Inverse folding.
């Protein structure tokens, strides 16, 4: 196994893990919050935002860093069609970082500023939760599709 294959396999594994985290949250946590009273759901989401720990951050940043390294390795050792597909897979995995930075972090910050006891804040939470979940599906699909493409190139 060469360095390009090792990096592609690592990026695929980490991308699939991130996709799993995102989809798990969208399919399990967010529906539970949507069935809860708005004040309680808002409090729980605020606590979730505040409890993001080093393991998640390592996986989040690590998946992006490995995908960047994989893309660079493919560009340096360019040989035919496989590197082009690997770049697509790497870019999709990297995209979850930018979706998070540009879409989710601003919404998480806004949610943290809301007062759970305020009716207007509860309405804002409900609207934000819908947007947030759609964005979470997007970053989940980016990570999963990127991982699937990388795996397919390893099997060729």
């Amino acid at each position: 196994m060469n360095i390009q294959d090792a990096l592609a396999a690592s990026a695929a594994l980490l991308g699939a893990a991130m996709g799993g985290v995102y989809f798990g949250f969208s399919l399990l946590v967010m529906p539970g919050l949507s069935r809860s009273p708005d004040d309680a759901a808002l409090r729980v989401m605020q606590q979730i935002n505040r409890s993001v720990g080093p393991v998640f951050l390592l996986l989040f940043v690590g998946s992006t860093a490995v995908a960047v390294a994989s893309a660079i390795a493919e560009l340096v050792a360019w040989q035919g069609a496989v590197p082009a597909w690997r770049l697509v897979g790497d870019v999709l995995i990297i995209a979850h970082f930018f979706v998070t930075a540009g879409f989710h972090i601003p919404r998480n910050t806004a949610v943290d500023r809301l007062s759970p006891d305020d009716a207007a804040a509860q309405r804002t939470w409900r609207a934000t939760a819908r947007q947030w979940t759609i964005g979470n599906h997007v970053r989940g699909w980016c990570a999963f599709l990127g991982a699937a493409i990388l795996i397919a190139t390893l099997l060729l």
The radius of gyration is 18 Å. Residues 119-155 form the longest helix (37 residues).
